[in-house]
Fold Muconolactone Delta-isomerase.
Amino acid sequence: MLFMVEMDVNIPLGFDPEEAAQLKAAEKARFQELQQAGTWRHIWRVVGQYANVSIFDVPSNTELHDILMSLPLYPFMTMHVTALCRHPSSLHDDDR
Amino acid sequence: MLFMVEMDVNIPLGFDPEEAAQLKAAEKARFQELQQAGTWRHIWRVVGQYANVSIFDVPSNTELHDILMSLPLYPFMTMHVTALCRHPSSLHDDDR
Amino acid sequence: MLFMVEMDVNIPLGFDPEEAAQLKAAEKARFQELQQAGTWRHIWRVVGQYANVSIFDVPSNTELHDILMSLPLYPFMTMHVTALCRHPSSLHDDDR
Amino acid sequence: MLFMVEMDVNIPLGFDPEEAAQLKAAEKARFQELQQAGTWRHIWRVVGQYANVSIFDVPSNTELHDILMSLPLYPFMTMHVTALCRHPSSLHDDDR
Amino acid sequence: MLFMVEMDVNIPLGFDPEEAAQLKAAEKARFQELQQAGTWRHIWRVVGQYANVSIFDVPSNTELHDILMSLPLYPFMTMHVTALCRHPSSLHDDDR
Amino acid sequence: MLFMVEMDVNIPLGFDPEEAAQLKAAEKARFQELQQAGTWRHIWRVVGQYANVSIFDVPSNTELHDILMSLPLYPFMTMHVTALCRHPSSLHDDDR
Amino acid sequence: MLFMVEMDVNIPLGFDPEEAAQLKAAEKARFQELQQAGTWRHIWRVVGQYANVSIFDVPSNTELHDILMSLPLYPFMTMHVTALCRHPSSLHDDDR
Amino acid sequence: MLFMVEMDVNIPLGFDPEEAAQLKAAEKARFQELQQAGTWRHIWRVVGQYANVSIFDVPSNTELHDILMSLPLYPFMTMHVTALCRHPSSLHDDDR
Amino acid sequence: MLFMVEMDVNIPLGFDPEEAAQLKAAEKARFQELQQAGTWRHIWRVVGQYANVSIFDVPSNTELHDILMSLPLYPFMTMHVTALCRHPSSLHDDDR
Amino acid sequence: MLFMVEMDVNIPLGFDPEEAAQLKAAEKARFQELQQAGTWRHIWRVVGQYANVSIFDVPSNTELHDILMSLPLYPFMTMHVTALCRHPSSLHDDDR
């Protein structure tokens, strides 16, 4: 099941740079794990923002919630979730 | 170059159903042409709305503008365009 | 899977009252069918509005979309969909 | 009498984790007490947010106010209250 | 139980003036009936607007809903309902 | 002359509780003084908020401004002022 | 007593030009009458808008309401009223 | 050339009162200098707010910008600038 | 003196196409006249919208107002005007 | 390819003035470098704000993103990016 998740990241001025770097590395590792599993299907940067637009493919709302809440950068993120579904005109099986 | 385009369709109550059906068929044909060309890379329905979230891959802003303005349903659409770019963490070459 | 759907109904001034009555009767029949099936789990009126707050329990986003788009009053509704999930503190199995 | 209460929780970065854990435990205990009393009829998590949608059944506005203001996490919450009432089409006596 | 109801009235340009006058007279009669019953406790005009701020005292949400929906000018009104309760500092029993 | 004033109070987390208690006591005393003088005609709590809706009866805008700016809790309040006037349909001389 | 009133005028496309010209002439005459009386103290156009920012000096809220509601162009206007008062730093008696 | 400038002042809780008093005195002095020069033509307090509505008469946008940015309280202000012009109906040469 | 003007054009569905074409031709002619005069310094299309972002260079607010209000498409436009000034860091005399 | 970027700068009260001066000097140097390269085609100050409206000409979305994210003042900026394209009516080759 598909969801668009728009994530804005806001790390406060003066936050310890080393801790920030560790969180970002952990976030990247977790992201790639989920990408390889096919759960985090797409991610794009929003130009000029520390933000992304992502597409998730999950078996249930609960699983999506658990994934998002456990992201390393979650405490610094504002999220907006939109439920999507396959468009009937699409020729790609992939855009399920 | 990647852009997210969010399209809301609003065909007024009492609009001629036959004309609406023709416009939708023309829209679908144009969409599939652009999808096969790799220009309209993704499309998803927004649950509960006559609306979609789409990802375009175009050589320039001008080309995107010309594509959007000439869509058969354009006069009935409200559009919101967001410039995107490849996310450095992505493992997929495809999310360029 | 649970979703909150907030529905506002706006039938234009001067709309044929008989046609409106037929649409409302069809909406009520469809609602009760879905309520008995356990799909439309809850519905409440919003005080002072021709509007409701509803909870749906569906197997997928696509099924929710198809249900909402085919409601008899859909062309007169503005909808807002929010993905929900079971709260871990809840003592009721029912609030799944 | 029914009310929807939408609660967003925002515990600041750097808040003492032990105190936070105690507040959350107290909140959970209070919630379950109210749920068993039939006052806090429903609670659902909002996907991707530290937030919930709740339905309260109370004898008066004043009682609802007193309950909400005395929640252990109240100082960290933003609340939005919507007065609801039974929908005439509902087949369930329960959705009073 | 107390509620603030903010009502904005918008009668479209070109609406039959005689029908408008009848609706306003019926609205005034209904208002005074409810005012005398102590249900519609207060009403004030908003300066520069065809709008009012009102305070209702009703036994239940449902009764408020039924009163508001059956006002003669309801189809021309936008309403915003806010649940209130007695303020503990008030010296007036009347501001219950 | 009548005005509605909507006041939201926001005392920051970690503010000295004793100082807060003193400010609240001073606010209550000032409120009751103004209520007895007939200046602060009504006050109601907004359910679920540390907020109130109030009606003031003052001889001039300037007097209202001076009263509001000198409230003990003013530095912690967000205020919204709406000019009101007597509604011609009202049967109560009191709703002047 | 001083008030800022922001007025936006919106005469619909296709409205009879002669009737519009009559309404504008009546509005101008009424404005100049009020300006000479010292009631409508200032008026300025907002650049690029069919809109103005005005300052009224009136003895009461009710008088302001009656003046605004009886303007010839009132049915085509959206108004926003803000209560003002003399600024203590002003050297001009005129900015009362 | 005329501009409306709406200024909201927000001095944080706990800011040194002596420094605040000095800034306010400097602001008042600068204001009166500009008022006497005819540049800051009008100022009014907004009732219930630490805010003002002002009218400036300046030879150019740049001069207005330089004046506003160098106000002693500028770092504590949020400003909204609206370009105005003389209203053709005005009888006062003064409302140029 | 420089101003940014953001213009959104909205010609209603069903508007006579011939009249629309005449208005657009008149708008284009007027635009080019003002562009050659150096008054309408820049114009850009907003991607996906029937809208533009423009930069005007005018001797006064009044002249800008008169130019905008007399544009052939003005009755179909929503405008937003922002006063600009030369940026001190700019190396181009042209960005005055 | 053209983009409008609206930048608001917000340096917190109490930020070290020397560090701020260094950041501003670095920002100015970087800006002038990009202006000379033809990338940062235009910049204007917004009157009364520590903000600018800028026009960028870049080969791709990604390049724009990299430029914006690496600006010395980026951590203090809020940005809004709008994709633009050449207007067909423009007589200037320069407004490409």
